[in-house]
What does this fold into?
Amino acid sequence: MKRWYILFSFLLVTIFFTGCSKKMFTLSDLNMDFTEAVIKKESTGSFVPIEEEKAHEVYDKLKDISFVELSDSKDMKEALYTLTFKNMDKVVQEFQIIDNNTIAYKRHFYTAKDNLDLKYIEQLFEVTFQATVLAADTSLLVQPVEGSSELRSSDKIVVSYKDNTLYGTEGKSIPLEQLEPGDTIEIIYNGLIMESYPAQITADSVKVIKHNYHLSGLLAVIDAIYQEDAGLNSNINQIVLDLTDLTNLSEKEKEFLLTAVGYYYEVETRTGTYEELVEEGVLEESTYFEDGIIIKLNKTEFDEEKKILTCGISKWRSPLGAVGSNSVTAVYNGKGWKVTKENMWIS
It folds into this structure.
């Protein structure tokens, strides 16, 4: 009898301590296989996609923290953030961060043995990416660089910003007018992208990383010839750029010229020569280009130090509808480009 009493007592104690024991885990215990993450700020609804390398950095920050289940959660506050790890858009694990030492996971609350670094979490909402300036007149329009997640959202983004948050290469505040098409800039924003077209973001800061005066100078002379004999532009829906002689431009820079010209004049753009258009059947030899014009640049030279561009340029729509100059000079004066065309010809 005594033996059964001891066994029964042992079972009661075991059950008691088993029932009272608190579940403990670390993120590394979960063996997560993920390729990306998303962090959401619950107070604003804003969220930031986190690419794989950065997602693993976030995971490494959290993986060794021990979390112990709380037995009483009746006074628990609302979550500050929701952190979701994903693999190819499929949710792997999701956690709510309540405060600097509390999380929610699978409808249970856990306290952290080491405080969570909320400052680090908040910095995740300061998203940084680089872009190329398309236009900087009444507003700032940019094209995200290749490889950025922003480019997957839109190839054109309108950037809103507050006063005194535009900075030059030396870190000093500059006006919008000092940004030039072709400039590479670094943008810091909260990760929230309005899915319009162009897309829209609000920047905390914009800094010029590198000027590309060569590109902005080319756009200035293209605009100068576009404005000549405006009747040649009537009812066009495409501009063909003949960039054959521009051997000092990269393919990406040529693509940028096409994008910028298409945006400025609201037309389709492509590269090509008169001969190529005839060969493709787009034009018949010595006939009128019904829905477009050809703008050809040649003999371009650019002095980076003096910011002077010289070239020849022409605009062609038909044998009797063309205009050009073999002596064009564009000079950057610190505020914009002044273009001079000499020996103009018309046919």
Q: What stands out?
A: The two ends are 120 Å apart (CA to CA). Residues 213-346 form one domain. The first strand starts at residue 24 and ends at 25.
